Amino acid sequence: FSFFQTVGAGAVPTICRIMEESPDPKIHRRSREALVKVAGAGLPDVIAGLNIDKPQVARDVIALCKAARFGEIPQVIRELIHYPDDHVRREAIHFLAGFGTREALELLVKLLADADKGVRLQALAVVSGVDAPIVKERVVEIAFGKEFTEREFDEQVEIFKALGRIAGESAVPRLKQAVGKKTFLGIGKRHNQENKLLAIEALEQIDKPAAKKMLGDLANDSDDAVRSRASAALGGESRGASAVDTGRPRTDRNVTKND
User: Fold this and answer.
1) CB atoms closer than 10 angstroms to residue 134
2) What pLDDT is recorded for position 9?
3) How many CB atoms lie within 10 A of CB 186?
4) Rounded to whole angstroms, how far apart are CA atoms 225 and 138?
């Protein structure tokens, strides 16, 4: 590849062809390094011309976008957010997280309502570490809104973990209110258990007296699964029996009256 550096920009088509045809990760890495050196100011055009049908090339494009230091979010990144390959999608979402602009953050927040569950979960994992009002407002809105009941139980768990991390102690009053509502997720004993298990997921992320107090109350709950999970959270056990383990995941979260 050192030869290509002596050729300069004229080597770009050859390097791109090697990148698109080779399955070897080492070749891809060296191709990216060579393109950054020989393409110069033309790197954005090179990126635009690459065929991203193959996941490895799509990941190359994300890495090259980082090297190109775009002033605005590249269109190809907006497309790769919805790429069928999970690794590519994750890297595109992380690119947005590292881009550092208000527009990038707003796009990540919008992805929390994406039609693709995988995109929603990956975006949630990223924004849950961002301390920004727009993130807090949206996560609280999802956690206590109507759209929450349409999410599968494993995703609801992740939403409540994020709620605890982002909203902190300010979420505790809403959590107290939520576990007391029979209509939070639905009517019936199973729903009531899941309400409490989800609340524990949030409370476990909040290292404040009010959260510990509520966990203590739940550790004395009449439901065995709730008591066990709350006690584990108070004891700082590493996940142990999570809400997904103790609750019954369901794909249909519609309100039912005959549980």
Assistant:
1) 14
2) 82
3) 19
4) 30
Neighbours of 66 (CB within 10 A): 14
Query: Would you call 97 helix, strand, or coil by DSSP?
Result: helix
Asked whether 112 and 124 are in contact (CB, 8 A), the reply is yes
pLDDT of residue 4 exceeding 80, the answer is: no
Q: Is 39 exposed, middle or buried (0-12, 13-18, 19+ CB in 10 A)?
A: buried
The Cα–Cα gap between 129 and 253 comes to 27
Amino acid at 16: C
Residue type, 193: Q
- C-alpha to C-alpha distance for 162 and 1, rounded to whole angstroms: 45
Q: Cβ neighbours of residue 131 under 8 Å, at least 6 residues apart?
A: 166
Rounded-to-integer distance, Cα 49 and Cα 15, Å: 12
Q: Are 70 and 98 in contact (CB under 8 A)?
A: no
Average pLDDT estimate for 21-46: 94
Give the model confidence (pLDDT) of 144-190 as tens digits: 998 898 999 999 999 999 999 999 999 999 999 888 765 445 444 55
- Contact (CB, 8 A) for 9 and 40: yes
Block residue for tokens 């069928």? 84
Q: Which amino acid, one-letter code, is at 63? A: A
Residue 197 is predicted with a pLDDT of 94
Buried b (16+ CB within 10 A) or exposed e, 87-124: ebbbbbbebbbebeeeebbebbbebbeeeeeebbbbbb
Which residues, 6 or more positions from 173, have their beta carbon under 8 angstroms from its beta carbon?
A: none
By C-alpha distance, which of 29, 25, 26, 32 is closest to 47? 32
CA angle 75-140-87, nearest 5°? 35
Tokens 């690459």 -> residue = 50
